């Protein structure tokens, strides 16, 4: 028999598991041996050897190798071996960079790997989805992705979207009864849930019947989830730019060779010089360095508790101009404590902080016992019944397992001496309608000891008040008159404007109606309103500062919350989000506006209250239409569309559902607003660092080409020999460029306006900086060559060595310039020690090449006299002083 046809108890036996305790760790390790891990087999990775060889597939590198081979055959052994060695080292570098980039991307994927809630040895634990095995009992709720194929044991309003398997996007309602009949299709298996499908509503438990490649998902291998695009807009632009640069480099090189030949140089030398120049001038390492810079930045973000799920987000982050943030848990601590209660015109306060179940109840100044106050007692009792949270102790402190709002209600009940286990014996829960932020409430149907059946609902006070027919007032049931309703409203208003987050409790008698026939709409209206529990949810201490920094960075913070307008306003004002002239819009107002209308006012709104997740999409669209780059946070299933359409979708790591996380490009491990700010800061920094090394590398290349071109045009001998050009390309260009990728941000990165999303690689003067500096580097190198050649007309190698040293020095000085958009003098040269070490090693390597006798024949160098170093240092620092001087002149 198949699992879907069997009765639940038979499955328990056949899979040799236990529905109450789950599997034991021993069972698990035995089963792991039998079934393996719960994972889909991945496509094979490119092998190391292949990746290594792919480093040499570049056309110019092949030409260089061929040319070298020819020169080897012609007897130029030393040159040939040296060139091949350099090409090989370059290949290795490229190989390691790519592997590193790949590894960090892989690590990223693993960090966002899905988790599953399983019952092991009698308690519920969260484990990685790959650790799940056959016979495990797992549970899931709205927003979760199912981790394996399961037969359902429990289904509470459970609906699952199975489009990944069936193509059908309408969610399927699930039940637990056996399904029989021939030819049932996957879509008909109502009592099964499949790996990779999404819970869109309700919750449930199930027993795992298949894992890994044995699941329905595993069997349709071609439908496996495709990896997200990991190429960023800048990388794409660089790719296009790369093609242009190659063409330009080739044309210029051809020019150098052509002019050289016309001026009488021998063809063979010019050819080798030309090819070396082309190899040096084509920035083939750029994409890999960009990837490494991006992924190192991503690692730094992880340290700051932000996980980038899609690499392009790293760049987009730097462009963000609005952050729309949830309130609860992101701007606030989500550590809730009930401090005030209200029912029928009476108010009570409760003492105690945090989740410690210790506190007293007061009515005004007078201490009261909740057991003697019927309304208060009922408020607390129902708050505990309609509740899933558990109080646990960890490291000697009390913590809540579950929803903090419910935790607060639980603790309030415990403070009054109520015991949930006893309550659950008195009131048997027979059905539940789980909370969702669109309805803003949750209900349970219970039967008490006398067989009376009724429902208890808790939720947003204004919603419940509006749907109530009667109100419990002074322990008596009263019809909801206009006057009483006003009293309730003003109690809600009063508590909310003191920044309390309120939950209302209501009930509804349902005698004699079969629970199976009852749906949300039957239960969740026509209530009797009992009262309110008001809880404080203190703002996160670091948020105020983060909001201020964002403002300085030209980024507006907008609060979006399901909470009451007044609560939202009070907290937004405390955090500096709501300023004097800012507007507050609520869900009702949003319902009445279309995107165009919202667009008109959206710039002035800093708080959206009482919104449903659906409104978030409208807000994103309106802001985007106004030209904003929007970061939007979210945690639930219904937040997914908004998260997806935002420029940067941000999901909560702790409270976020799988659906939200999978739609997002950034996950906050600590759910903290301040983390978004840090990520933006890091995003800006990464982009600036990439600009820095693009500037460095391209200017260096321009300099290398121009010095050769100038020399040919002036009918001079070759100022640099091929191997020297290759050496500069490997050492002087490579190391410092990597170090620039690790540079710290300039002091004012968070004081600048956000970058324009569409800005090109050469925007903000970068193109000019590259060309002008490249020109100057070329010029001073040529000048040094000419002076040295004039002084030693019979000793070309000497002049070439001077030119080589000048080129290297000019670049190594230039690299410090690249650290700042403003001027080299605005930054401490020792601020980036990686760079200092990279520059020092390049210098030492240059000196070795010049002064070690055994290296001299390989690199065609000769020792430089001390007095000529003055000339080299003087000339190579000219560009920096010239350009810095022109900067200061402009500033004046
Ligand atoms: P944010 O959107 O900032 O995270 P939020 O938690 O207030 O804020 P929702 O989760 O959409 O937003 O909740 C909306 C309202 O529903 C809350 O203001 C509260 O009144 C009510 N509510 C929240 N959690 C529960 C719950 N577990 N059971 C019943 N009602 C709840």
Automatic annotation (TrEMBL):
Domain of life: Bacteria
Pfam families named among the record's database cross-references: Cation_ATPase (PF13246), Cation_ATPase_C (PF00689), Cation_ATPase_N (PF00690), E1-E2_ATPase (PF00122)
Membrane topology according to the record: Multi-pass membrane protein
Sequence ranges assigned to domain Cation-transporting P-type ATPase N-terminal in this UniProt record: 2-76
Gene3D superfamilies: Calcium-transporting ATPase, cytoplasmic domain N, Calcium-transporting ATPase, cytoplasmic transduction domain A, Calcium-transporting ATPase, transmembrane domain, HAD superfamily/HAD-like
Coiled coil: none
Catalytic reactions on record: Ca(2+)(in) + ATP + H2O = Ca(2+)(out) + ADP + phosphate + H(+)
Signal sequence bounds: none
GO biological process, one term: export from cell
GO terms for MF: ATP binding; ATP hydrolysis activity; metal ion binding; P-type calcium transporter activity
One CC-aspect GO term: plasma membrane
PROSITE patterns attached to this UniProt entry: ATPASE_E1_E2 (PS00154)
UniProt keyword list: ATP-binding, Calcium, Calcium transport, Cell membrane, Ion transport, Magnesium, Membrane, Metal-binding, Nucleotide-binding, Phosphoprotein, Translocase, Transmembrane, Transmembrane helix, Transport
EC number: 7.2.2.10
Residue spans crossing the bilayer: 49-71, 77-96, 244-262, 268-296, 693-715, 721-742, 770-789, 795-813, 834-854, 869-889
Subcellular location: Cell membrane
The keyword Metal-binding is annotated on this UniProt entry: yes
Keyword Ion transport among UniProt keywords: yes
UniProt family annotation: Belongs to the cation transport ATPase (P-type) (TC 3.A.3) family. Type IIA subfamily.
Protein name: P-type Ca(2+) transporter
Organism encoding this protein: [Bacillus] enclensis
